[in-house]
Design brief:
The chain is an alpha+beta fold. 35% of the residues lie in helices and 20% in strands. The strands form five sheets. Strands 1, 2, 3, 4, 5, 6, 7, 8 and 9 form a nine-stranded mixed beta sheet that branches. The chain has a five-stranded mixed beta sheet with strand order 10-11-14-12-13, with helices on both faces. A five-stranded mixed beta sheet has the order 18-17-19-20-24, sandwiched between helices. Helix 3 runs antiparallel to helix 5 and helix 10 packs across helix 11. The protein is flat and about 75 Å long.
Amino acid sequence: MSENNNINSYDESQIQVLEGLEAVRKRPGMYIGSTSLRGLHHLVYEIVANSIDEALAGRCDEIEVFVHKDNSITVTDNGSGIPVGIHPKMGIPTLEVVHTILHAGGKFGSGAYSVSGGLHGVGASVVNALSESMVVEVCREGHIYRQEYSRGKPTTKVEIVGTTEEHGTKSTFKPDTDIFEDVVFDFDNMITRYREMAFLNRGIKIKLTDERPEEPIVKNLHYEGGIISFVEYLNKTKDALHNNVIYVEGNKDANIVEVAMQYNDGYNENVFSYANNIATTEGGTHLTGFRTAITKVFNDYARKYNFIKENDKNLSGEDVREGLTAVISVKLPEPQFEGQTKTKLGNSEIRTLVENVLSDKLTSFLEENPSIGKIILEKCLTAARAREAARKARELTRRKSALDTSTLPGKLADCSEKDPSVTEIFIVEGDSAGGSAKQGRDRRIQAILPLWGKMLNVEKSRIDKVFDNEKLLPVIIALGAGIGEEFDTSKLRYDKIIIMADADVDGSHIRMLLLTFFFRYMRPLVEQGHVYIAMPPLFKVYKGKEEYYAYDDRQVDKICREKGWRKEDPNVNIQRYKGLGEMNPDQLWETTMNPETRSIMKVALDDIITADEVFSTFMGDKVEPRKEYIHLHAKDVTNLDF
């Protein structure tokens, strides 16, 4: 081979070996998902998970988390304390091993932890690697032991700094600003996450303290009812069909299953599954066992007591789960996780356990509580009739070619590009704004679908009503990916779905109605990041031929200040847009539609439980939760127009 051909070759000297925790700092996303706010919060979760594992082993019942003024974090527990003696294999203190060596932990064998949420023993060492400073104090065997670290490396030896009769571990760390995009913790996010942990671990007390405000915020999370309290919390914005939550539990060998469930008068299924406190958002064998069991139990019960006649069809799984809120929690020694994000449980024995426990105990419950059984069965049968009506409506629209993408809505101005990965559709409020958008758009990649008037509130409607709604049907047809159980993102005709509505009360309502529809009937659309909200300016500030756009009063003031303009000057004009229709096509393009200059906000779904609560609160029938939410969050509003 010629010398020139070897220019791009490499030899032994170019093979890089990352020692210690350098690999974590080099590729943090591999260990915590990302360096965004989600990754930042994952650091806290890793340390708290260690304390939860102590609780699962029966050695801890109190955990405290502090967010300090400098955005450092302290986590304390009253567990047994991390071992501090010399590690037999490594020859250094075990406390140091745990914090400086990957895959070092007490969770690999069956000795210290029979059940654990920590699978790989990377928690403490990863947090240490990604923190500019970390201090760990262990109360154990009458002494207080302490060691300090910086960016994964110990800066002191393990030292005895005092005596004590207490036991437990205290970890304080400050995330590294060289690693994270932002190091400001979201306390509301933390409350949501650790409330969930408190529900899943009955009896554990978790205390959160945010020291950053002038008046520190303290939140105590403790639920003796466990997942029963969890279901009650999830249903608080809904009207329950029966007062008491149905609860079953069982175990086999070292595997434990708990299920809590309660029906409400809504039309949505809210079933949340967990394995060793980890949210299994992709489901798995425990969820499959749950669904199989309740479908069979309710069909058997319905036939036994003639709710379903001999020649009638069985209830489908969808019918049985309409209006159901349930939590499934399993704990097992050797969880096997699958899927893209490792959030799908694969243990086959768990399916059998969940199915058997639920079938046996739910059947007994229905036999002992016939009045509740009747209420639930009537709900299921109504759902079945609505599903059949929806099927007929769906077939009717298909026969008319309404759901065939070759027959698109009359008001849709489609784009010429056929590659869905580069196209976008603007769902625009009103015909006048739609007209401006059609004239101002990039016809190659941008489609416009004008909507007029208020659409159906799907929070209060079943799917059969959706197919009858003249406002929603054009959206379903234009997107081309189906709806509900049949929704398929691979058939989506546009990569970005951008909601463009006026910055007023009516516009806000339309945005909320559309977002509710997407969340309830096209959730993958939101989960995969296809939904956006356009951010049109509220003001045009101009003097002579100079003009600028502003999104709020503060920006107006800033523009005037930077240009040296006085608002009282008659030559300085401030135009307040009342609606998108007031903008001419080139203005709408420049401010709201041009990918180079516009502002659009991606709709992210970080927490399904919180999202469900918000949609139920604002779009449901109950007024009190809405008032309470507005009262609690009014102080957080920064831009009332949006």
